[in-house]
Amino acid sequence: DLAWLQLGDGEGASAPIEVRVVQELDSDRSVVRPGRLIGPLGEVDPNGRMARVLVAVDDPLGRLAPEDAPAVPLLIGEYVRVEIVGAAIPDLVAIPRSALREGSCVWVMDRDSRLGIRPVRRVFSDAEQVYVENGFREGDRIVTSSLQVAVPGLPLTATLVSAGAREESVDGR
Question: What local confidence, expressed as pLDDT, does residue 7 receive?
């Protein structure tokens, strides 16, 4: 999401954003090079809906690669994966997509083991999780199981589902 990147105005107004450029050679090998994000190219790939960005790489031909690493050139227009670290967002919580109720609420078991319905602000999401802020209090535990009736104050019981994953299921009493 380009909105989360703090890009300069192209004239050095902000520090360059450091990135990792990953060139996949085959299923087992890849070459990782440091790079700097210059900025977006102002277009989105119509097939993959991915934003195109301009990245500077200091050693694109691999001439400075260590002896034990493959000296593989990075070609213009080659598809690579660019790992970009954006700005940190304080108090952001990652929750499973299934825990988001009615688009902007989360069910929680409060410290008194009662159901609370907390409004949250959805910041962004990926394939598995939704990242939200606001709405949580100390001691809240997110309810991921379904309840037939979600009434605030409903007494709840937590049950351990998977000891390895430390997941809990919460059911109304």
Answer: 59
